[in-house]
Amino acid sequence: MRQHPTERGRAFVARVHAWSALLAVIVAAGNGIYGLDAALAALAGGAAVLLPQWYAARRLLQPFGAGQATRFYLALWVFQGLKWLFTVALLGAAFFAMKGQEIHILVGFLLTFQGLWIVPLILDRKGKS
């Protein structure tokens, strides 16, 4: 049975977030050679990317009717703005809580953020979209 496009989109986004979370854990484990604090800092940087992204995607991937294009457009702007606001807040909280681990936070943040761009390309190429 064919899925509704929104359901297919949700499934694809869920796979992207799962693979990106795995990438964040791998980056944190790699930073573990510098100690547990570095690993936790890298994980906090990855969480600063993934948590707001997951929340915004979950809110936006709801079925909107064809006549509700304006509602979706407004929701897109609102949730993208909230996503970036929450990302900055979580990144700031990580910097504040883990003084001295800034480079590890940035490594986790940047690699997870880039993973959110690269993972969909890999999944799409493998026919998993």
From TrEMBL:
Organism field: Permianibacter aggregans
Keyword annotations: Membrane, Transmembrane, Transmembrane helix
Superkingdom field: Bacteria
Protein name: F0F1-type ATP synthase assembly protein I
Transmembrane stretches, start-end: 12-34, 40-61, 73-97, 103-123
